[in-house]
Structures are given as C-alpha cells and as structure tokens.
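With this grant's support, we have paired protein sequences with backbone structure tokens. One protein thus recorded is set out beneath this paragraph:

_____
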Amino acid sequence: MIRVEKTGDAYLVFGEENAETLYWGEYFGRPLNNSKPKIGDKLSPMRLSKYEVLYLLEQGRVIVVKGNRKLNIAKPTGNSLTVYIIYKDLRSKGLIVRSGLKFGATFAVYIKGPGIDHAPFLVQVVPETYRLSGIEVIRAGRLSHGTRKRFVFATVTKQRKPIYITLSWVKI
C-alpha cells in the first residue's frame, strides 16, 4: 500500500518507486519538480488531487497519513460529490482524468495519457438542475473548436447515475 502524506491542503507521495507506480502505471498525480516528465525522469515528490486520493483510497491502494497518524478522508458532498462521481466513472472506463483548469473546464480527459496523446475531451461538471445558457453553449463551442477537443457537459442524477452531453459542429 502506498503512503500519501497530507500536508496542509496537499496530498504528497514520496519515494521514487511509489511515484513511478502511480504515475507511469495509470497517470495518477503530478511531479512537483517536473510538469512534463519523460520516462527516466525523477517523479518524487508527487502531488495527488483530492479526487485521485479518494479514488485510490476506494481501490485500497493508498493510505493517507499526517505525521505518524492515519487519516480518514471525509466523503465529498454537494458539488464535490457530483465531480467525484464523474471522475470515478471516467476512470472506471479506463480514461485518464486530469484537471481541465487551463482549458476552462473541470477535467481534460485522455485515452492514453498526457505526453502520449492529446486530451480529446474537455468535461465540464454541472449540477443536475443546471440551466445551460446560450452564452455557455457558444463558449463551449468556441473552446472546443479552439483547442480541437470535444466539449462534454457532465452531471449526475439523483440516483447517482452519470450523464454526459456533448455538443458538435454541423455543416449545413
């Protein structure tokens, strides 16, 4: 089991072997000292997102500690729960899920992994009762066209079932 250290708001993995297992195995985490690692680069220390930590905890692959004390991580609620359900669903489909912040979305989703292919999808997670405005449709269209990615709106039903809606250009 891999030890994850909680330091402030950060979840850190120390030890090259642990970092390599998580990163090269399934692209979990980001090395703190290298934004675009290549095979053979040093990966430790590595930072995990809270969604990665929750997912890996559910899988029984990590233990979270602060000092010498084991921590229990609170289950997400509200919008964080919606985001986590989408994250977990995408990961369970074998996709690589990274932050989409630099693209203006919740997630950038890869088929093979960052550095191997480009993320073909941008996913914006919204509440089930969300009312999509015309301006947001235009923003999504422009963003997906400008980045050459498919823009996907994702939400979760009251029964916690993920729903995905994508927009695409049509030539008339």
In short: The chain has two domains: 2-70, 78-166. The mean pLDDT is 91.
